[in-house]
Design brief:
Layout lengths: L25 H17 L8 E9 L5 E9 L2 E3 L2 E7 L3 H8 L2 E8 L4 E11 L2 H10 L2 H9 L9 H14 L11 E15 L7 E8 L2 E6 L3
Antiparallel strand pairs: 1-2, 1-5, 3-4, 4-7, 5-6, 6-7, 7-8, 8-9
The structure holds flavin mononucleotide.
Length: 221
């Protein structure tokens, strides 16, 4: 046993069910669950409905693959995929250049739910990136130019110096979308919906792409 013992901390999952009849189309189900998550957010019961963990993997010197993850924000989805925005030269961007596969994960603990989305990744068109970049607050736009995301920097002061430099550069002008910044879309091949139930007998429904649509499978919890 470790020194930090959490073995007796547990909660019961009993707020909802995921019935087989409800699981016809993964995008409709995702829309329902995201609506419920954003409603809970609006009611102050959930922090950030659109926050999702993004896992990528990069090759290591010994020939194996090292996964790593971080949180990003879902900015839109349709049947073509799930979109977020980032710096293409970041660690995640470089991982995806090398291995265009990712896994997204939403955890809405207040609703006793998680959703996993595995698939391939493609960049959005430049116009989609530019359109969203133009909607961002100016401070975030300037930051996108100033921050070489995932690169080492000596100090906070140096980062703030780069921000001041970018502010001077774009003074009195619109801040354009940096060429290395934009959208990525995860095109799903598998989507799992998980609803917590009592006694750890959770509902798990997995949708897998097949030729003419989706195959639906219930998994043991
Ligand atoms: C709630 C939350 C939302 C975030 N949203 C984004 C996002 O949409 N895009 C992004 O590039 N980073 C976002 N970040 C920062 C990332 O988690 C991460 O630190 C950054 O993208 C660098 O990751 P990388 O070095 O693995 O590429 C967010 C972090 C948090 C906690």
């Amino acid at each position: 046993m470790s020194v930090h013992d959490l073995r007796n901390r547990r909660i019961n999952y009993d707020s909802s069910t995921l019935d087989d009849g409800r699981a016809a189309d993964p995008f409709e189900l995702f829309a329902d669950w995201m609506d419920e998550a954003t409603d809970a957010q609006d009611a102050g019961k959930l922090f950030e409905a659109a926050a999702m963990t993004l896992a990528t993997a990069h090759p290591t010197a010994d020939g194996t693959w090292q996964p790593r993850n971080r949180v990003v924000l879902l900015k839109g989805w349709d049947t073509a995929g799930f979109m977020f925005f980032t710096n293409y030269d970041s660690a995640k961007g470089r991982d995806l250049d090398e291995n265009a596969r990712a896994s997204l994960h939403f955890h809405w603990p207040e609703l006793h739910r998680q959703v996993r989305i595995d698939g391939t990744v493609r960049r959005t068109s430049a116009s989609v990136s530019e359109e969203y970049f133009a909607m961002r607050p100016r401070g975030s736009q300037v930051a996108a130019w100033a921050s070489r995301q995932s690169s080492p920097i000596r100090s906070r002061e140096e980062l703030e110096g780069r921000v001041a430099e970018a502010e001077r550069r774009f003074e009195g002008k619109e801040v354009p979308c940096p060429p290395n910044w934009g959208g990525l879309v995860v095109v799903p091949q598998e989507i799992e919906f998980w609803q917590g139930r009592t006694s750890r007998l959770h509902d798990r429904i997995v949708f897998t792409t097949v030729d003419r649509g989706w195959e639906v499978t219930r998994l043991c919890p």
